[in-house]
């Protein structure tokens, strides 16, 4: 401790640091989280979102149970390969407090890492605290392209 900083000064500094750390943790709890879901690449095509399966960023979608998260103009969307011929597209934003959900292929569930909400592949709530389902988007797989209808 320097001779210009009293014990009271040092304690105030420690208290301010602790309060700042607490506030950062509170802000992080309610906001979006960084997802461990692979980030895919999508382009706009005729007002829809298109994912090219030959693009390495979308490689996870080559296999059943694979998923990627892509940004759309008004949402963040998780695209899941549900079978050899079908895909599902849902909002990746938890309806509880806006965290980004992650797909658990082993249990076929979308999990919110912030507060534990669970959603089925249809978007319906399996376990709260979320009460509203995830928004569902029509999605089709044709050849090496997935089209997500945004309307």
Write structural notes for this entry.
The chain is α+β, with helices and mostly antiparallel strands and 151 residues long. The protein folds into 2 domains: 1-30; 43-148, Rieske [2Fe-2S] iron-sulphur domain (Rieske Iron-sulfur Protein, 3-layer Sandwich). 16% of the residues lie in helices and 32% in strands. It has one helix at residues 7-30; strands at residues 43-45, 48-52, 67-72, 75-81, 87-91, 102-104, 109-111, 118-120, 125-127, 136-137, 139-142, 145-148. Strand 11 and strand 12 (145-148) form a beta hairpin. The N and C termini lie far apart (63 Å).
**SSE sequence, one letter per element:** HEEEEEEEEEEEE
Distance linking N and C termini: 63 Å
The CATH architecture designation of the largest domain is 3-layer Sandwich
Strand order of the largest sheet: 1-2-12-11
Name of the level-1 CATH class of the largest domain: Mainly Beta
In terms of per-residue confidence, which ranges show pLDDT below 50 for 5 or more consecutive residues? 1-5, 7-34
CATH superfamily of the largest domain: Rieske [2Fe-2S] iron-sulphur domain
Average pLDDT taken over every residue: 81
Q: What portion of residues belong to β-strands?
A: 25-35%
Total helical elements: 1
Strand count: 12
SS class: alpha+beta
* Percent helix: 10-25%
What is the third-level CATH name, the topology of the largest domain? Rieske Iron-sulfur Protein
Counted up, domains total 2
